[in-house]
Amino acid sequence: MSAQAAVLIAGVIPTPAVRTLPTPELAVSGLAKGFDRGAPVFSDVSFDLAPGQSVSLIGPNGAGKSTVLRCCVRLIEPDHGSIRLFETEVCSLGYAALRTLRAKVGFVFQRHNLVPRLSVLTNVIHGAQARQSGPGTWFHGLAPRRLREEALHCLDLVGLADLAGRRADHLSGGQSQRVAIARALMQRPRIVFADEPVASLDPSAGEEVMGLFVDLIRRHKLSLLFTSHNLRHAIDYSDRLLGLRQGRLQLDAPSACQDVESLRAFYA
Amino acid sequence: MRDTSIGTLTAGMPSRFERPGRVAFILYVVGIAFFVISIEGAEMSLSALITGLPNMGRMVTDMLPPSPDRLVAVGWALLETFEMALVGTAFGVLLSLPFGIFATRGLTPSPALYHLSRAVIAMSRTVPDLVWALFFVVAVGLGPFAGTLALVMDTLGFCGRFFAEAMEEAESGPREALTALGATRSGTIFSAVIPAAMPSFVNTSLFALEKATRSSVVLGLVGAGGIGIELKVSMDMFEYDEAATIIFAIFALVVVVERASAAFRRRII
Predict the structure, then answer these.
(1) Beta-bridge mates of residue A158
(2) B32 within a domain of the structure (yes/no)
(3) What domains are there in chain A, each with its CATH number?
(4) What is the ipTM of this complex?
């Protein structure tokens, strides 16, 4: 029995503590996006993400999950709405300020998006372009020693330090996604967006990579917003679950209160 | 139940050839008529070809065996030809890179620069290398420098266009990833776009070298250096056996460059 429950049972009403909610890392309000002058893919999408919180976004194909993620860093320009990232209004930023803001956001893509012909180490060093520009971050041969060592450390975190010299297009799908995670860590982000991070992997590699990914996110105390079609992942690896369907956010609930069967109905 | 056996569906069968519309038909007729007129304009004559055959035979007889008298001079001229091709291609490729980037949609910093770069590349490509050579002979004088400059312009026209196309077709994923993490435009170009387009760059550059080797042979005809001037002098002096030596030397150079570039291409790509 919790202490609070014990106090209530004893008939003593506890004095509510004055507790200020932490400012959300990400606050999305009234977001809408359509393509080619057609009906909007989604509209009036609002949610927020507290520091250190992990939120999963589910929904059927075409619901706009990836678009929501991309709108948050303006890889896709939203039509309407407000996106506040680290208390900064994203939609009103100029190119340079937007770049600075994006530097704090790690983005893990479904298809990994590594540069295929370059080495694993170079791909991870690219993550440092968030805070440093110039040839030192273009190719590992030109990178300063501290960046090379940091990149190797990030690779070590995902268990691939021994593959640093291998070409990225010679990796398996699971290894590629782990390199993409290392690249995101190299950014030293505050928040990470992941767009179906294990959708292109076989179930075994998917479990392994997702477990490692979320473990690293928690160890580094980062916030996480990820999309997934794997309902087990969506429940197990998030604190809160959002559901996008028919252009609206129709579900926003703690993940602990959800089960796979009831979520399956969301796709019906 | 409908009978759908073979032979019962002929009504819906599309015709073997599509009948052209009225405008298309007129255009075909005009095109064919212009081709016939062009044969007349080109003074194509089978009888002239037949009467010229003995002259050709005589010339080939005079060419054989090739004369080894000026082999050393021909060797130096051949080396100069290849040096022109190599240097002209290298500088042309280097120049093509910025022009190619500016001429790539999505990478160019401004629309004005895009159109300007496209115009420069198009002009470099449409003006023949011999005309560039004439221009540079007037500008910098006779010799291999004029020929090298002509090859730089020719390579710019060739590589600039293909570099831009390769960068436009490069996979967008890595670029999106770097944009998402806050990379600068130059960071994205040098880290994601150029590595993705590199096989195409290498391929195009090696083709440009082969092309420049062939071009550098004829640039000598207008005094822009290389072995062409040796060939012209031999032909003008009716020293056909010497001319044969030069032609064989040119053939050997072109074959060696093509084989070497093919081997290099296989190794790199």
Answers:
(1) none
(2) no
(3) 23-99+228-268 (3.40.50.300)
(4) 0.84
User: DSSP letter at A188?
Assistant: -
**Which whole-number Å values give the CA distances from A59 to A240, A242, A243, in the listed order?**
14, 8, 5
Bridge partners of A80, per DSSP, are A32
Q: Please report residues of A whose CB lies closer than 8 A to that of B187.
A: 129, 133-134, 137-138
Residue of chain B with shortest Cα separation from A118: B195
Contact A133/B196, CB-based, under 8 Å? Answer: no
CATH code of residue B108: 1.10.3720.10
Kindly report, residue by residue over B108-158, the tens digit of the pLDDT: 989 999 999 999 999 999 998 889 988 998 988 888 899 899 999 999 999
- Answer whether B184 sits within 8 Å of A129, measured CB to CB: yes
Hey, is the C-beta of B45 within 8 angstroms of any chain A C-beta? no
B48 within a domain of the structure (yes/no): no
Q: How far is B132 from chain A (nearest CA, A)?
A: 36
Task: Report the distance separating Cα A226 and Cα A194, nearest Å.
Answer: 4
- Summarised one tens digit per residue, pLDDT across range A115-153 is 998 999 999 999 999 788 888 889 888 889 999 999 999
Q: Name residue B100's amino acid.
A: G
The closest CB to that of B179, out of A75, A180, A187, belongs to A75
Contact A185, A222 (CB under 8 A): no
Report the C-alpha gap between A159 and A161 in whole angstroms.
6
Outline where B181-193 has alpha helix (H).
185-188
Nearest chain A residue to B170, by CA: A115
Phi, psi of A247, rounded to the nearest 5 degrees: 80, 5
Answer left, alpha or beta for residue B260, where phi above 0 means left and psi between -120 and 50 means alpha. Answer: alpha
Range of the domain at B221: 73-268
